[in-house]
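I would love for you to help me understand the pair of lines that follows before we discuss the fold together.
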Amino acid sequence: MEEKVVLVSEQDEILGLMDKMQAHENGILHRAFSVFLFNDMGEMLLQKRAAGKYHSPQQWTNAVCSHPKAGETYLEGANRRLKEELGIETELTEKFDFIYQADVGQNLWEHELDHVFTGNFAGDFHLNKEEVSEVRYISMEELNREMTENPEHFTEWFKIILEEYQHHL
């Protein structure tokens, strides 16, 4: 069964549900969340998307990005996906929300009202290999250097969300 996303207005008023693929093909605004995790040294966790992902495979991105299900809060969705993708649980704090659009290739668009959460994690990961091929921690300085030198290695939405995150520091 196709996953549904929650369509919203710019004020986060629910407008209905739509198949995720259809929303991405038509660039329709929907709910999303992004999680930035850090270790004790302040390094950010990156995940490399699995090769089988339908868009942006094998690109680096933040710890978790996804969509809350109907009836699920942004925080509940973020916690669910941490468990499903990385096999972990940790306390999250919401930092900000914003709307963005990104062309992710293959005639697909992200148009999301994105709630951004942060947390700390220093334990072991139990990766869902259908979602994530590998993870690594990286300093913000090194991340900014890699993004400048090899932007094609990173998802389009991560570039946008990271820039917005750095404005909120």
User: Anything to note?
Assistant: The chain has a mean pLDDT of 96. The helical segments are 20-26, 74-86, 140-149, 156-167. The first strand starts at residue 4 and ends at 8.
